[in-house]
Specification:
41% of the residues lie in helices and 15% in strands. It is built from 14 helices and 6 strands. Strands 1, 2, 3, 4, 5 and 6 form a 6-stranded mixed sheet that branches. Helix 1 crosses helix 11 and helix 2 packs antiparallel against helix 8. The chain starts with a helix and ends with a helix.
Length: 343
């Protein structure tokens, strides 16, 4: 099967993408790119990578930052656990004294899985360990006609072993980057460039008409719907926000006053005995059922503006900040969209 490796390496020499983190062997720069590019388009991810490298050019600089600073710089990328893990792992590395240089040691860093550890170990240190990501699953499943679901234990073992068997030990870095680029450019999820594919003669999926059916993934995900009510309170140039805790979406990010699965009757302008201190205030509906899609959830959020000269009673975890300083607080993209509706 070495012919596959040879063809991919040749294809990579002619078609590989020019990316800034490929101009260095710095494991920190490579690690940062891999974390940012998880669940992120490469065009968007490149801008964030450049910003992070300008602000924190070394792992020591990143470790010295606060979590708030890192989350603020990450804002807009989503999946904020990546940023928290990145920051935590940077401190692990500094405490260790140097960047770990083997797959097994890199794998011990917070938030680093098999794929990321293999990418760093092979690209930065030349360790012959194969990467297996979505692109690799797609290329291998199509070329070899493998219909074992990729999100099962059996599937993961099958593809990991196959990927490792194809890896040329002395060209681990180039080969891993080659097969990932091949999946991103040539063997794409939709409309792959089969007519111009250098592997077309031996591609099982092409000859059996299964291009659109491979790779196979078991459907397990159940999407739940959540209804949120946000109230932006404007009081003499200040507003109330609180920081989301652990165990839910957007851990560590800031948001306006939130009601979820609670009594919102006081938003109705008619007299109400519930929460009389709020029921007499003038709430302005700015957006109804704003839709925001996450991996496991769909959020439907109502957004209100409350302008008042007297601070209403709020839970203890809310703080009052100057509206002009809101940009200093890391916020979910949904909240950013809501704030854009304010006059």
């Amino acid at each position: 099967m070495c012919y596959v490796s040879d063809i991919l390496l040749q294809w990579f020499r002619e078609n590989g993408r020019e990316l800034p983190w490929r101009e260095t062997n710095d494991p920190y720069a490579i690690w940062l790119s891999e974390v940012i590019l998880q669940q992120t388009r490469i065009e968007q991810g490149c801008d964030y990578w450049l910003r992070f490298m300008r602000r924190w050019p070394t792992v020591e600089a990143l470790a010295a930052a606060t979590e708030d600073e890192v989350l603020r710089e990450w804002q807009g990328l989503g999946y904020y656990s990546r940023a928290r893990n990145l920051h935590f792992a940077a401190r692990q590395i500094v405490e260790r004294g140097c960047f770990p240089d083997t797959f097994l040691e890199i794998r011990k860093l917070k938030g680093v899985g098999d794929y990321t550890a293999a990418a760093i170990a092979s690209i930065a240190f030349g360790e012959p360990v194969a990467v297996v990501d979505g692109n690799v699953y797609r290329v291998l499943s199509r070329h070899f006609g493998i219909d074992t679901p990729i999100n099962t234990t059996e599937g993961k073992k099958t593809f990991a072993a196959l990927a490792q068997s194809l890896l040329p030990p002395k060209e681990a870095s180039a080969y891993n980057q080659a097969i990932m680029d091949f999946g991103a450019i040539q063997c794409t999820p939709r409309n792959p460039r089969c007519v111009l594919c250098p592997l077309q003669e031996t591609c099982d999926a092409l000859h059996s008409g299964r291009i659109a059916k491979l790779p196979v993934k078991q459907k397990k995900l159940k999407i739940r719907e959540r209804h949120l009510t946000y109230i932006y309170i404007r009081c003499k140039g200040k507003t109330a926000i609180h920081r989301r805790g652990a165990g839910d979406i957007w851990q560590g990010l800031w948001e306006p006053y939130l009601i979820e699965n609670g009594d919102t009757s006081f938003l109705n302008p008619r007299p109400s005995t519930h929460n009389s201190q709020l029921s007499t205030l003038n709430f302005q509906l700015r957006k109804k059922a704003m839709r925001h899609v996450l991996t496991h959830q769909v959020l439907l959020s109502d957004f209100y503006l409350l302008e008042t000269d007297k601070r209403p009673p709020l839970p203890d975890d809310y703080i009052w900040v100057n509206e002009a300083d809101l940009d200093s607080y890391a916020k979910p993209r949904l909240i950013e969209r809501m704030l854009e509706l304010l006059s």
